[in-house]
Every structure is written in structure tokens, then in C-alpha cells.
Amino acid sequence: MSKFIPVLIAVLAGWVMMIAYFSPRLLSSRQLAEEWYTIVATIAMLFGGANLCLHHLKKISDREAGWGFSAVTLIAFTVTVVVGLLKVGVVPESVKSLNRPWSGQFQQEGSAFWWMYEYLFSPIVATMFAMLAFYVASAAFRAFRAKNVEAVLLLVTALIVLVGQTKDREITSLFLPAPSDGTAPYVPIGDLTEFIRKTFVTAGQRAIMIGVALGVVATSLRILLGQDRTYLGGDE
Amino acid sequence: METVKEFPRLKQPSPGRRRRTFDRLPLRFLLLLGSLLATALTGLVATPVLTAQESVVETEETVEEVAEENPPAGQRLVDLPKIPFFFLTVGICTTVIVCTELARHGSPFYVRPIAGLRAIEEAVGRSTEMGRPMLFVPGIQDINEIDTVAGLTVLSSVAKVAAEYDTPLEVPTTRALVMTAAREAVQGAALAAGRPDYFNEEHVYYVTDEQFGYVASVCGWMYREKPAACFYLGKFYAESLILAETGNAVGAIQIAGTAETAQLPFFVAACDYTLLGEELFAASAYLSGEPAQLGMLKGQDFGKLAAIVLIVVGSLLATWDSISPRPMEGTDSAAHRRTYWITDLILKGG
User: ipTM of this predicted complex?
Assistant: First the structure.
């Protein structure tokens, strides 16, 4: 029964979502299912928060490797939750609600929560994202080694695309002699890049996307027919 | 020594159990052709209907008459432009179900080897030998994403092998619902392996919903614990390369898989094995080796055949439209309608 009910809910919700795509009369049922999903996900978030605290408290208690990071995580979590829930620094939205100090939005500009987001969280996330450039460089260095014919083709294509992305005629035509009419020499490397991206890359991506779409259909069908229960721990 | 699992292939059915009617090859093609024909006919029939509706709107009829022809979206029983797509969906689903039934009744289906999935046991064995843990990342999206569900099915298989070898498996998640499902999957796998004591819920935990906060946590764990094998299977975005490069830096054997075409090159560049798109969804069928699931893979192949037919027909129609003479007034609506039912009604789902 502990497996049957969740599977039944998943199957019913799945069928409703699918049929509602073709029948507008079932749109309200679809919206209802989506609302229930939001409710379940919100409740699960509470479990997630509790799990986060327990997990890191245990790490601190056991003095596991990296327990200091767990302490930082817990402090940051507690401060964020307290500042957000208590609406620290939030002012009432209008003069009429001066007697209701909590009437403002918790992410209001100038509030403590907003300050933490703008000056602590955003820079950290931006730093992480910026590091991606270095990871791309190191991955490209390994991937673009001319080991065989296919690798050489990949390397040449990648170089064309990279140079073509610069959009700078002075770079792409650096070593070419200037034409007699005095204009800058033109190398159609930008056009070649567009041709590679629109023709070969798009064709390859579409082939993968067709396979993905069919895979999604088959996997969804397995779930809708109740055959795939691995997300519930299987049939054990 | 060969450590990879033998490629699953269905056994030949005993002659007594074989359903000769379904085993005949032409019947399968007839089924496919039937679904294709239905799709094509519906598309051809639907186009004049839709065109007629457009012309009704263009003429000077009263608002009431137009409203009678086109009731509000919420009152319509069926969304007419989506009918061809509906038949295409039904056709593919029917083919998948028929193939599943054929497989259940013993029809042998060949499924090509997938290197990334064959390497799972090798990766677990390597972790066991090195005495280091493994990492499994089921993507950064919630359980409503089908990629995440596909990732969890692979987690189940990985956890089963890990339980047999008694190798620690760490599963950090970005969503609480995924954490719950992942715990169920690992617990079920441990039970299936006959090692219920293997499951420790502290190894399957929630980190944060925030993309880069999650990446920072997982990468920090990887640098500290130095896992011997890393699995990234699910929905990934910009964090894919950060995770894969960190795994590469700590010397882990890496198996990745995602349906996000933009992230596939990163995984291919940084990981040892990559499941490309559909291979992620085929993973559970491949790993389980169950006839029903392998039959579904074969059904997908028929779907691909349908896609090829539609592409070829659409290309021919579009080519014919481009070279055929057009009216001087300039609108190419007449030519456009010839490919309308393929490009808009079927492929774009109406």
C-alpha cells in the first residue's frame, strides 16, 4: 500500500497533465495538480531545511572532515532565516500601515535581507560563475589535442568558431595584404562560423533532441503505466 | 580481466510460447505505417478545417457567428490544432506498447551496447579497490523533470552494485523531494542486493536549492574526500563543467549523462563516459535487462523511423515549394500551407 498510493497519485496526475494538453476543458484540473505539486514541494522544503540542520549538526558533533564549513553553513542559514522571517530593517509600505511594522516586503530595498542578497550572496554567485571561464579553458585544452584525424577536425572547427566569434576583422585579417582599393582585407571567417553553427551544429543538436523527445515519451509512458517505480525504491 | 557486465540480450523464446502473429516482421511495419498514415491523413484533413476557420475570421461575419465557430479556449473539448500531434503521440505510444508486449512474449530485440553504462561496474570496482567513496549527482532540478527521474533510475542500479561491493555512495541533492526519492531508491537497491544494512540516510542529503551554492558544497566535498568515481546523471546547466572538471582534478573516473544539448560538450570534454541524450532514458531499461523495458527501447526506434519519414517528406515538400512558381502578389501563404501540417501542426505540437 505504501507504494501503491504514491504510484496511483503519480499515474493519475500524469494522465491529467497529458490529456489537459489536448483538451482545454481539463485545464483547471491541470492547474489543480500543479498547485498540489507546489504545496508538496513547499512542505518538502521544510523537511529539506530540517535535514540540512541535522546533517551539519552531526558533522560538527562528530568533528568530520570539513566540519568548519558545516558551522559556517549553519550560521549563514540561521542568520538568513531569522533576518528574512523577522523582516529586519523592513519599513511599512505606506503611511496608512505605520501601525503594522511587518506589512513591508521582506526583500524590500534597503532591508537587511536585501543587503545580504546584494552584497554577500550575489558577489559569491558571480564569482562562482566567473570561475567557469577557467574551467572551460582547462577542459578545452585537454579536449582539443590533435591525436587523430577526428580530433584535428574538431580542433580546426573549434578554432574557426572561436576566432569567428571575435567579430573583429582586424584580428581575422591580421596577416593578409590590404587590397589595392584601400579597404581592409576581408576574411569570411565570421560567415564560416555562422555556417558551421547553423548547419552542422544545429543538425547534430536536432538529432539528439529527437532522441531525447522519444526517450522522454517512453520514460513518461513507463511512469504513466506504473511500470517504472524506481523513483519509489522499486518493488521491494 | 573483463570486469564489465555482459550486455543484456533477451533469450530466444521457446517455440511453444511464441506468438507467431506478432513475430512477423511485416506486421510491425504495418503498425508503424498505420500510425503514420493516420497522422498524415489527420494532418491533411485538419489543414483545410483550420484554413476554413481562418477564412471565417477574415470575412465580415458577426461576432456571434465567429464566437460560435471558435468558443473560448476553456470551453472547447479538444484543441483542434493539436489533433495531428495527438495522433502522432498516440501512434508512438501504441508502437512502444506493442513492442513491449512483443518483448514480454519472447521476441528477441537487439539493443546496442552503451559504453557509459557498461562502465558502471568498473567504476564501482575501482572505488572498492581504492577504498574511496563514490559521488552521485542526480541533476539540479526537481522530481517533476523527467531527466531527474531517469537519473534516479540509474542511481538505483549504481546503489545496487555499490551495496554488493559495500562501497560508500554519497548523494547530495538540490531539492528536498529528490532527496526523498533518492533515499527510497538507495534503500530499495540495498534491499534488492540483500544488504539492508548498507543504506545510511546520512549519505543522501539535501544541500541547497541554489545552483552555485550546491556546486560549491559538492566540489568542496570532492576535494576533501577524493571520490574514486563520480556520476552526473540528470538535468544540468552551467554547473556541469565545474563539477566535471573538479572530478577530473581529483582523479575520479566519471560517468555523465544529460538531455541538455548545451551541456553535453562539457561532459564529453571532461568525463570518461557520457550518455548522450536518449541514452540517459535508455539506461534503466539497459541496466535492468527486463524484456518489457527493452521493448520500450525498440518502440523508440520506430518513433525515430517516423521522425525520419516526416523529415524526408517535409524536406521534399519544402524543396518543391521553394522551386515551384508563386503568385506575383508576393504572399507565400499558399505554398506555406503545404508544409504547415508537418512544421506547425505535428512537429510543433499545434
Answer: 0.84
Weakest mean pLDDT among A127-131, B93-97, B265-269, B336-340: B336-340
B303 touches chain A (CB under 8 A): yes
Residue A59 with chain B: CB contacts under 8 Å: none
Residues 6 or more apart whose Cβ sits within 8 Å of residue A18: A220, A224
Do B282 and A215 count as a contact with CB atoms less than 8 A apart? yes
**How many angstroms away from the CA of A143 is the closest CA of chain B?**
5
For A114, the 3-state DSSP assignment is helix
Beta carbons of A230 and B188 less than 8 Å apart:
yes
The dihedral through the CA atoms of B240, B245, B250, B253 has a sign that is positive
Give the pLDDT band (50/70/90) at residue A95: confident
- B277 and A211 within 8 Å at the Cβ level: the answer is yes
**Count of CA atoms in the C-beta half-sphere (13 A) of A169:** 8
How far apart CA A141 and CA B282 sit, in angstroms, is: 31
CB contact under 8 A, A125 and B212: yes
> How much is the CA Rg of chain A, to the nearest whole Å?
28
pLDDT by residue (tens digit) across A47-60?
889 999 999 999 99
